[in-house]
Design brief:
157 residues; ATP hydrolysis activity; rod-shaped; mainly alpha; V-ATPase_G
């Protein structure tokens, strides 16, 4: 009976108790039962520890993979954002150049219009000068030659 029990490899710890009780009732060989229980208990404990270690190692690998994934996603997001910024700068520079080209002629036209206006004002002032030049000269000569002596207001009489 002990040989059949030893060959069973898939017995769980809860099954060991029921198998032990049934074997003890039928066979009565306590040595065989105790040996079987101790051997299976050591197997179960060592396999349990090994499975816990294996599971812990797998969990650590999963966490490391998640960290690597997150780090890679952050790097790519940063690169994408930098590229977007550069593209935006380039588009705004193009818009500025286009605006300057469109309004370049307008500024030149404004300058030309201002020059024409200044020239017409100068021409008008020269005409006025030529018209009134002789009258002003007559007034200055007359004021210099003719004098009207009079006492100053603050002078006492």
């Amino acid at each position: 009976m002990c040989s059949t029990i030893e060959q069973s490899d898939t017995i769980e710890q809860s099954e060991i108790v029921s198998v032990t009780a049934s074997v003890a009732d039928s066979v009565g060989d306590s040595y065989c039962i105790c040996w079987f229980i101790l051997e299976r208990k050591e197997e179960i404990m060592s396999s349990g520890i090994q499975s816990l270690l294996k599971t812990e190692k797998e969990a650590a690998e999963i966490v490391n993979e998640a960290r690597k994934y997150r780090t890679n996603r952050l790097k790519t997001a940063k690169q994408d954002a930098q590229q977007e910024i550069e593209d935006y700068k380039k588009s705004k520079e193009k818009e500025l150049q286009k605006y300057e080209k469109e309004h370049e002629g307008i500024n030149e036209q404004i300058d030309k219009d201002a020059d024409v206006e200044v020239e017409t004002e100068l021409k008008h002032l020269k005409e006025q000068f030529e018209k009134k030049k002789s009258d002003v000269v007559k007034l200055l000569v007359e004021a210099t030659i003719t004098s009207h002596p009079s006492l100053h207001i603050n002078a006492t009489k």
